[in-house]
Amino acid sequence: MALVAATNRSETPAEASSISDGIRRSGTCPAPRPEIHRPPLQLGAQSRTHQAKPFDVRAIMDLPTPSGAQLRALFGLTPSEARLAQLLACGDTVEEVAQALGVKLTTVRSQVAVIFSKTGVHRQAKLVAMLSRIAHLADTA
């Protein structure tokens, strides 16, 4: 059941592989897709004596992801399962992952079930939290 970056009519093989290449090279999620428009919100912590110090919410969305090699070594994931886990760690839904990889939703769901089995988690939110911690630990090591 290998998840293959199959191409669709609007995507070349190079474009399909660029999704996972961007994750491998940078160690963070690729930039948000152009169709996602997020306003530049300014948030900040306020104290009684100081005004809020604004920061850009878009910086928070650049989530670190563990490398495919780390995921394969830690959990025995296949390269395609590791690529799928990385995309989930970026906050993508299974529908978005299926579309990005050019595969059927049922394929992604069955691969997610295998990832759950290999990692010992049963919820996608728990998987994403665990992958985020792995990425942060790797950054500090």
Structure description:
- There is one protein chain.
- With 141 residues, the protein is mainly α.
- The chain has a domain at 64-141: Arc Repressor Mutant, subunit A.
- 55% of the residues lie in helices and 3% in strands.
- It has 7 helices and 2 strands; from the N terminus they run H-E-E-H-H-H-H-H-H.
- It has helices at 13-26, 57-60, 68-75, 79-89, 94-101, 105-119, 124-140; strands at 42-43, 55-56.
- A two-stranded antiparallel sheet has the order 1-2.
- Helix 3 crosses helix 4, helix 4 packs across helix 6 and helix 5 packs across helix 6 (105-119).
- The chain is globular and about 50 Å long.
Average pLDDT:
75
Q: What is the CA-based Rg, rounded?
A: 17 Å
CATH fold assignment of the domain at 64-141: Arc Repressor Mutant, subunit A
Roughly what percent helix? 40-55%
| SS elements, strand count | 2
Provide the succession of SSEs: HEEHHHHHH
Judging from the principal axes of the Cα atoms, what is the shape?
Answer: globular
Specify the CATH class of the domain at 64-141: Mainly Alpha
Helical segment count: 7
The CATH homologous superfamily of the domain at 64-141 is named: Winged helix-like DNA-binding domain superfamily/Winged helix DNA-binding domain
Q: What profile does the largest beta sheet have?
A: 2 strands, antiparallel
**Strand numbers in spatial order across the main sheet:** 1-2
Work out the strand percent.
under 5%
**What structural class do the secondary elements suggest?**
mainly alpha
Q: Unreliable runs, pLDDT <50, ≥5 residues?
A: 1-13
Q: Can you tell me the CATH architecture of the domain at 64-141?
A: Orthogonal Bundle
- Give the N-terminus to C-terminus distance in angstroms: 34 Å
